[in-house]
Amino acid sequence: MSKTSQPKRKTERSLKHNHGACIETALSRAEQRCAEEGERFTGLRRQVLELVWAEHKPAKAYDLLKKLSDIRSGVAPTTVYRTLDFLQERGLVHKIESLNAYVGCSQPNAEHSGHFLICEACSEIKEIENSKISAWLESAAQDEEFKIKTETVELSGLCIRCQPS
Ligand SMILES: [Zn+2]
Ligand SMILES: [Zn+2]
Ligand SMILES: [Zn+2]
Questions:
Q1: Which element (helix H / strand E) includes 101?
Q2: Which residues hold their Cβ within 5 A of ligand 1, which is an ion?
Q3: What is the pTM (predicted TM-score) of this model?
Q4: Below-50 pLDDT ranges, the chain
Q5: How far is the CA of 77 from the centre of ligand 1 (A)?
Q6: Domain carrying residue 133
Q7: Fewer Cβ atoms within 10 A, N terminus or C terminus of the chain?
Q8: Domain presence at residue 163
């Protein structure tokens, strides 16, 4: 049997990207990360991460529990929270504090705090990949002799698709 593959069109990437590839990349990175730390990337951890990555939108623990209950039986809320903690500690997901929800990390190999652009209209979340923000905040805090414990940068507004043209 032969498989025909679709040619990739780069120009369409910004408007309609291949989200299947996003999920695949996230899962293989997670597998790698767990292996490096001697942790098991269990079926449950994989399923929770896959559900968080279903969209580039915030996922609430409660909704994850509901979706998870559809694919496996006997899932307790504490199990979901513990799994999310595990993924968060390894930098595979970020918690969006202002929404009390989770989003997959697009760059789990680099040490960073999450900085996010959150669209109020379509709820899409984009992680800003910019270490300059951290460096700037660090120096601003140092000027005040302040020791940073958590760094939360969440900007809300309208994404490019939701802005009135
Ligand atoms: Zn995607
Ligand atoms: Zn991240
Ligand atoms: Zn939007």
A1: strand 101-104
A2: 19, 22
A3: 0.84
A4: 1-2, 7-13
A5: 27
A6: 18-157
A7: N
A8: no
